[in-house]
C-alpha cells in the first residue's frame, strides 16, 4: 500500500488485556523483564473538536482481501479511522471497531519493535482520548497522578480543557521521533476577531504548540512492544502569525517544564509511551493508561518543522489582496 493511499484515506474525515511484564529501561538494547509501572483507567467519552480537512486525492483501495493479513488490516483500519474524525466524533461503535482492528494488527507484528522502526515524522490519525494527550507534556501531567481518584480527576480536567478550547480548530497533530527525543507538534487556529452572533472576521490566529521530551530510556516489553521513557523538556509556540508576539517567541520565549518540575515538591514524572506496532506506513502506540494512538508516517525525516513560511501578519495582506481581486474581477 502506497503512502499516498494512506493519506488519501485519512483525508475523508469530516472533522479533522492489561499491560504485560516490561523490561528494565536502558539507553540501548532491550533488557530483562520488569513489572508494570501503572494500571489502566477506563476511557471516557469526549466532545468532538472543530477539526476539518479537505479531500484532495482519490481513494485507492484496489488491493484485495487475499493480500497479507497486515495489509488487509491496515486498509480496514484506515477506512474506519477516516470516518471517526481522528477518534473525536463520539461514535462508540466506530471507535470500538478501530480499537479491535488495531489490536488484531498488533498481533501480526513479526518481531519486536525497535527505535529504528519508529524514527521519523508521524501524523496522528486516531486517538481514543483527547488529541492533545499525545503530547509528552500531558503524558507527564498524568504521570504525576496516582491511579484511581487522582487519575479520574486528571481525565476530568483534560475533558474540561478541551471543552474550554472548542473555539479553536485543531490542525495537524504529529510526533517526530529521533534517536534521543520525541517532539510533539500540535497546530491550532482560532478566530482573531470573533463576533457576538456567530461567525467571525476572516482573520485567524495560527500557531503550533511544540513540546519536546528527551528519550531517557528504551526498553522492550514481554510482548515485543517498544517502550520509550520520556523526560519532559520545554514547551514553545512556533509559527505564530501575530506580529510582535512572533518575534518574542522566535527569540526563545518558552516554558521550561523541567525547571518547573524541579521547583515543585513532586517526583520528576517520567511517563512511558509504548509503541506496539510499527512498519514503514503505520505506527500504533499506547500511553500508560492504554489509550490508543494510531499514526501514519509522513517521512523518515527527524527534523522538527521550522514554520518559516508562516508570515507574522495575521493574514491581513492576503485578505486585502483577496478583496481587491474579487472587486476587480
UniProtKB/TrEMBL annotation:
Keyword Signal: yes
Positions of the Plastid lipid-associated protein/fibrillin conserved domain: 72-294
Name of one Pfam family that matches: PAP_fibrillin
Region forming the signal peptide: 1-23
Transmembrane segments: none
Signal as UniProt keyword: yes
Localization per Swiss-Prot or TrEMBL: Plastid
Chain residue ranges for the region called Disordered: 19-53
Predominant location category: plastid
Record keywords, A-Z: Plastid, Signal
Coiled coil: none
Protein name (Swiss-Prot/TrEMBL): Plastid lipid-associated protein/fibrillin conserved domain-containing protein
Source species of the chain: Aureococcus anophagefferens (Harmful bloom alga)
Species classification: Eukaryota, Sar, Stramenopiles, Ochrophyta, Pelagophyceae
